[in-house]
Amino acid sequence: MMDRYAERQEVPLDPETGKPVINTVAAVAIAPSGVGAELSDYVAQVVSVIRESGLPNETNAMFTNIEGDLDSVLRVVRDAAMALAGQGYRTGVSLKLDIRPGFSGQLEEKPRIVDELIDKA
Fold this sequence. Notes:
Elements (H helix, E strand, L loop, with lengths): L22 E10 L7 H13 L4 E3 L4 E6 H16 L5 E9 L6 H15 L1
Antiparallel strand pairs: 1-3, 1-4, 2-3
């Protein structure tokens, strides 16, 4: 069992490859510049790429959150940005990463913990 309060965790290894498994939760916003006031059509192209990746994800009003191994998450962010940049649009990417070895399922776990703490208050 992982200790959520430990400052450092053991890094698990993938049993097939022997490589470290570095779980990552990303908050990403990708949008083109200079295309007008409404960006939904462009954002939909980006979110479609993220959803097709197969990684756990969720979209809210400001960001799309993605969870997976660091390499996989970064690959999906690149592919999603290329959905617009590859069409010639100047593309901005805002990216925040929470890299936490040893943990998984954090898209669901983090909100659950917060809800439990609020319920206790």
